TrEMBL record:
Organism from which the protein derives: Oceanobacillus neutriphilus
Domain Carboxyltransferase, chain residue ranges per copy: 26-307
InterPro entries tied to this protein: CT_A_B, Cyclophilin-like_dom_sf, PxpC
Gene3D superfamilies: Cyclophilin-like
Keywords: ATP-binding, Hydrolase, Nucleotide-binding
TM region(s), chain numbering: none
Matches recorded under SMART domains: AHS2 (SM00797)
Entry keyword annotation includes tRNA-binding: no
Keyword ATP-binding: yes
Name of this chain's protein: KipI antagonist
Superkingdom per UniProt: Bacteria
PANTHER family on file: 5-OXOPROLINASE SUBUNIT C
Amino acid sequence: MKKIFEVIKPGLSTSIQDLGRMGYQKYGIPTSGAMDVFAHRVANLLVGNQEEEATLEIMLMGPQLKVLQDTVVAIGGADLSATIDDEPLNSWKSFRVYAGQILTFGKPVNGTYAYLAVSGGFFAEEVMGSKSTYAQANIGGLEGRVLQKGDYLLSADADWKSIRAGRYLKNTDLPNYEHHRPIRVITGPDIFAFSDKTYQQFYQESYRITEQSNRMGYRLDGKALSHTDRADIISDAVLPGTIQVPANGQPIVLLSDRQTTGGYARIATVITTDIPLLVQKKIGSEIQFLSVSLERAQADYLQQQRYLRMLRTALQQHI
């Protein structure tokens, strides 16, 4: 292991994340992991890593980092005005950085979460098979917390010189976080908790992402949804994208740091391929939902997996 960055400024909320802590929800342990899994995976591929390697998840106001070792890095996800020694950097592209340079994230342009990948991946002690930070329980990442000034970030001793800088996504492949299309969902399991009229309202109305939103879930505000009887159910499983409706009628979309079970009726579930579009929306954004079939959701997921396999193969051929 080697020190790769020194944290000069930690940013608003910067943490080490990977694809999450799988297999422990039955013990009450949340999965955590990257909010935007697609951006995390692509950033890793651009620097020659396996997709599950740990990255830095950077929310809105990013950190300032001093480079301590020459390496190759890439930024995926939100455009947070990244610069190296005050020279602008493009997202979705790998580039070389050299010892002594200063990597800075500035004003958010679009999106909320950016992912900084480094050749070899960021080092952290694994907890239950994952490096992901779950700050509420102080596990994973760097001492189970977000970055602080003076921290040192470590990386594996990867052969970064063999990784070609300048790898990038084509413009036609770049996610459009400013696209205002509806967030697609499938119907939730608690269909008898809501009337047809309530479902119609759910799909017709707009909802604002409130200031109470975080990695656990996005709390929405709009015209209250009513239940046929009561909001409570016997606690049952929840997933990334589960939309609960508590007694106040305001939906909550559960995300990476969600609890493992929930006791509120579930009206819908955001499909996997649309979760990045949702989490990259800024606080105050208005969103709408669109119902799609389970078959449509599965087809889009498989299409995304095929794309990632093609990208991985193409990049491996152009190391």
